[in-house]
Design a protein that fits this description.
- The protein is an all-alpha fold and about 160 residues long.
- It has 6 helices and 2 strands; from the N terminus they run H-H-E-E-H-H-H-H.
- The chain has a two-stranded antiparallel ribbon.
- About 15% of the residues are buried.
Length: about 160
């Protein structure tokens, strides 16, 4: 893990995660079978809304590391919410792989030429997002600290 952390520092991890999240938000509106963007489907807005939790977590991590602050209960609750969002990421990985495997079911239909390249890219981006999220948890634990609130009042200095 140390080798990966040296290659992907906390800044690079956050920036790559931001880029991947933005790309996946765009691809979330893309229909693989039709090669069209669907902006009127309400289901397509679930992932962008859930990704707001991830954007907020990345901002908090950046702020806590640059300011040298200790973790707080709000940050812990945000990280717990991100754990739930990661379940959605796992579902999207599963769903993307099922879509890629379903091309044999539609052999008599015309499948766009962008089906495999874009589908593989989406699957790869979701997998990278999941791994980078785990790496950001590790960076948080290493740079900001663990969530130890039993002696939180002892570590709190009101004058800093």
């Amino acid at each position: 893990m140390s080798l990966i952390a040296n290659i992907l520092s906390w800044k690079r991890c956050i920036l790559f995660t931001l880029l991947i999240l933005l790309a996946l938000i765009v691809f979330n509106f893309y229909g693989l079978y039709t090669a069209k963007f669907y902006l009127t489907k309400p289901d397509n807005y679930i992932f962008p809304l859930l990704s707001l939790v991830h954007f907020l977590y990345l901002y908090v991590i950046w702020f806590k590391i640059t300011e040298g602050e200790l973790p707080d209960p709000k940050m812990r609750n945000l990280e717990y919410a991100l754990y739930a969002v990661m379940i959605v990421y796992l579902f999207k990985i599963y769903d993307s792989s099922l879509i890629l495997q379903s091309v044999t079911d539609y052999q008599e239909h015309i499948v766009p030429t962008t089906f495999f390249p874009i589908g593989t890219l989406i699957l790869t981006l979701y997998s990278l997002l999941f791994l980078l999220t785990l790496l950001s948890f590790w960076h948080r634990k290493r740079r900001v600290g663990v969530y130890n609130f039993e002696n939180f009042n002892d570590n709190l200095n009101m004058w800093q």
